[in-house]
Amino acid sequence: xxxTASSARAEVTLRSKTMVLDFEGECGVERAGxxxxxxxxxxxxxxxxxxxxxxxxxxxxxxxGDSLAATVAQPGGKVxxxxxxxxxxxxxxxxxxxxxxxxxxxxxxxxxxxVLSVRGLRVTP
Length: 125
Hints:
- The chain is mostly beta strands.
- It has one domain (about 5-120).
- It is about 0% helix and about 70% strand.
């Protein structure tokens, strides 16, 4: 299936700050019976800017092979993160949602500390 425009809304905790972000981008969905697989997922959301040194910027969620990665770009630089665990997906009407309470993203060099958490990620292709 070709990638289509997609949107998602999710609660995100970046470091210790929690917010709700609206993601926009694209993805494809492959369905085989009860199995759902996302392909070519690439969603971007703007971070709120309250004027602090770590405010503003973007969060990019991107599929790399069968893994999910995140890039947080802020005025002070960019951080590349990987999902702590594999992400499974389930169909919910026309949407596809991540199975589980949250997706935790970590620095590859420090996998014991979660930098970014995403909860309630539901992608509508």
